[in-house]
Amino acid sequence: MESENSGLKIFSLGLQHVLAMYAGAILVPLIVGRALNLTSEQLAYLVAIDLLTCGIATLLQAWKTKYFGIGLPVVLGSSFVAVTPMIAIGSQYGVSAIYGAIIVGGIFVLVFASFFGKIIKLFPPVVTGSVVTIIGLSLVPTGIRNMAGGAGSDDFGSVENLLLSFGVLVAIIVMNRFFRGFAQALSVLIGIIAGTIVATIMGKVNVSDVSEASWFHLPELFYFGVPTFEIGPILTMVIVCLVIMIESTGVFLALSKICDQELKEKDFVRGYRAEGLAIVLGGLFNAFPYNTFAQNVGLVQLSKVKTKNVVVAAGFILVVLGLVPKIAALATVIPPAVLGGATVVMFGMVISSGIKMLGSVDFSDQQNLLVIACSISLGLGATVVPDLFAGLPQSFKIIVSDGIITGSLTAILLNLFFMIRRKSKPVSVEGDQSVA
């Protein structure tokens, strides 16, 4: 009986991780598919294969072997960094060029994982803390929009949406104040379920997508045709993959702090390789580039459940959802306001993790302050004002099309600039207080 209860707990905690990342996971295929005018059947395949490959990618990362897998409680999802480049490539070169570029980008990550692991010293706490903080800040506007009912909704900002979202938010806070153990760990899941029940009573839940979804769907190799390889899209996707690796580095370090698990160079290399495999997988089955989801890091911090068994359960749940679209459609009935109330807490926890990492930085050093100030300001600015770089050539716009990219590159380049201008000091991945 105890083992059954333990299994039920792990499944419930894994389901909580799935619900935490579900909106982000299906949002990318919906945005890209609709922008490329895919049919409803093609769009359904894109959502299903995305969930399936999210699950496989998560299992690859959790399965720590000699060659791949970081072994931390990470959940992988389709990268938002790749959305704009994928739409641009698909519009200009066709869908087949997107997947040729993704395959080459994944191979690039696999080949250069060892090299990237060796330059981890370029990411001291002042850089990684800034990057993780930027990731959290960049996610918050999405959570706030969902609290109001979701961008473009007819009832955006209505009293009903605000009551739902703040009700879920208050429920999560109250459970974390007055409960301990399993109930506290499941606070987000319970908040989402309770919010959805209330939304159903209010008539804000539509189950039509569930009845129309099929019961079973197998993945197909090259569903959109044989991939084509164009030099422009390939270079673009390589840049995207580099940014994904930088973003994942910050998330890996944040999780290592939360889990009290010191990471070494070989751990990062295995983590990069797992993401490279996931990206290649996305290209072969016409899915997406994948990276570690920051919202799930916030959930680990909030729930205090640090075992990777939970994300293994989440990986298997995602695989099942990808194979059985009707079950996957059940999660789509959760109103945006309910998700917004839950995700805004987790996004805030990501910011907290970044601030905690910055706690080991020497704030009496003006150069550290400049790295933090410029990177967070530009990262947040590019997120809030996406037209900031509208006048740049397309090749440059792709590089700075996302606040996370802009802020991360600013932190890295400024850190390198200040390294050149001072005597070199040894850098520890775990806690050197200087810029370099």
Tell me the layout of helices and strands.
Elements: H1 2-35, H2 40-62, E1 76-78, H3 83-93, H4 95-118, H5 125-147, H6 159-178, H7 182-185, H8 187-201, H9 208-212, H10 231-258, H11 265-284, E2 290-292, H12 294-303, H13 308-323, H14 325-331, H15 336-358, H16 366-384, H17 394-399, H18 403-420
Antiparallel strand pairs: 1-2
Helix pairs in contact: 1-2, 1-3, 1-13, 2-11, 2-13, 3-4, 3-10, 4-10, 4-11, 5-10, 5-15, 5-16, 5-18, 6-8, 6-15, 8-15, 10-11, 10-12, 12-15, 13-14, 16-18
Unreliable runs: 1-5, 427-436
Main sheet? 2 strands, antiparallel
Helix count equals: 18
Mean pLDDT comes to: 80
Strand content: under 5%
| SSE sequence, one letter per element | HHEHHHHHHHHHEHHHHHHH
Range of helix content: over 70%
CA(first)-CA(last) distance? 53 Å
Descriptive overview:
With 436 residues, the protein is mainly alpha-helical. It contains 18 helices and two strands. It has helices at residues 2-35, 40-62, 83-93, 95-118, 125-147, 159-178, 182-185, 187-201, 208-212, 231-258, 265-284, 294-303, 308-323, 325-331, 336-358, 366-384, 394-399, 403-420, and strands spanning 76-78, 290-292. Strands 1-2 form a two-stranded antiparallel sheet. The longest helix has 34 residues, at 2-35. The radius of gyration is 21 Å and the shape is globular. It starts with a helix and ends in a 16-residue tail after the last helix.
Keywords:
436 residues; mainly alpha; two-stranded antiparallel sheet; 18 helices; 1% strand; disordered N terminus; disordered C terminus
Question: Care to give the gist of this entry?
Answer:
The chain is mostly helical. It is 70% helix and 1% strand.
